[in-house]
Write a structure and sequence with these properties.
Number of strands: 3
Mean pLDDT: 81
Distance between the termini: 89 Å
Low-confidence stretches: none
Shape: elongated
Number of helices: 5
Largest sheet: 3 strands, antiparallel
């Protein structure tokens, strides 16, 4: 009887491991990969000086972490930063284009707009 229970328990443990649940309370290694500045340059395709400038950019800085003198980056955050700068492939409509042009004008021309 004990042998049957042991086999069933082993089967339950196997199913839990396949589902991603482990019975151990050990801390697992983080799935995010930490990279240094030189490898971050290769990922984003910029030079080291451009990387440092991009970190201090006021409007869309490159995500980074600093401990002591070293800079650290997470690979997944760099890819997300690259994708966030993606331009939309939809062309603006004629009305949007005209509104952008006329917004920069100080006064309306005498002949009217010629769109």
């Amino acid at each position: 009887m004990v042998g049957g229970l042991s086999e069933k328990l082993d089967r339950v443990l196997e199913l839990l491991e396949k589902a991603g649940f482990t019975g151990h309370s050990k801390q697992s290694k983080p799935s995010r990969r930490l990279v240094y500045a030189k490898e971050a340059c290769q990922i984003i395709g910029k030079s080291l000086s451009s990387l440092y400038r991009g970190i201090k950019a006021p409007n869309d800085p490159i995500p980074s972490y600093k401990r002591g003198k070293l800079l650290y980056f997470y690979e997944d955050e760099l890819y997300a930063w690259i994708e966030s700068g993606r331009k939309h492939s939809v062309a603006p409509s004629l009305a949007e284009t005209a509104a952008a042009i006329t917004a920069g004008m100080k006064r309306r021309p005498r002949g009217g707009y010629n769109f």
